[in-house]
Amino acid sequence: MATAPPEDQRRLLEVQALDTRAQQLAHQRKTLPALATLAELDGRIADLRASLVESRTRVADLKRELTKAESDVEQVRNRAERDQQRLDAGGVSAKDAVALTDELGSLATRQAALEEIELDVMERLEAHEDALSTVEAANEELVAEKTKIEAERDAGWAAIDAQVQAMVGERAKAVDGLDAALVTLYEKIRAQLGGTGAAVLNGNRCEGCRMDLPPGDLATIRNAAPDAVVRCEECGRILVRVAGASTGAAAG
């Protein structure tokens, strides 16, 4: 059976308390409420991004369609102006004048049809631009909210990291001077058992696994020398014997 000074064994509980607190802080860092909020916001932003891309694409397509419609109208209008100028200038034969007049009639009909198309495209573009503005505003609102929550997350992390940093110094002081073999054993057990390597023996209960020890195990522990490093037969943790221990004194 390994041995270590009784005082070192009791001081090991201070180390365990600091290690447990460090685990709690690590858990808090991973489960800050801001992180869940950010995940929810990221999902909403991702969903909105698809609508944003679709809306922007549709507006761009309609702008190209409007440009073509305007060009078509302009071409017909220019052709009509040239025909009208030839008629107004005179110097054309009667046959050509009739042909120009007929063409002007056709061009007027064509221009009216193209202007209807142009107007339809303009109306659809206006509607899609309004929709795009709405989606962009919603996206900007979500991005601004995300920036705010990120600041809250960073502040939360900074506060936790400051506590962890302070505890690193406290732990170094707590470990300083302890029996090296005892600390090595403690670290090994702690790594194997999820962070708790030492616990108080409170009456007949191991506060590490919260189980009552059999009478035979208790007798063995009671008969062990004060410097003997005893371990729980149920969970394997180092059991620290502390006079007057209560459940509240447990580490773990």
From TrEMBL:
The keyword Chaperone does not apply. The keyword Ion transport does not apply. The lineage of its organism: Bacteria, Bacillati, Actinomycetota, Actinomycetes, Micrococcales. Residues 15-194 form the CT398-like coiled coil hairpin domain. Keywords: Coiled coil. Residues 205-239 form the C4-type zinc ribbon domain. This is Zinc ribbon domain-containing protein. It comes from the Bacteria. Residues 45-86, 125-155 form a coiled coil.
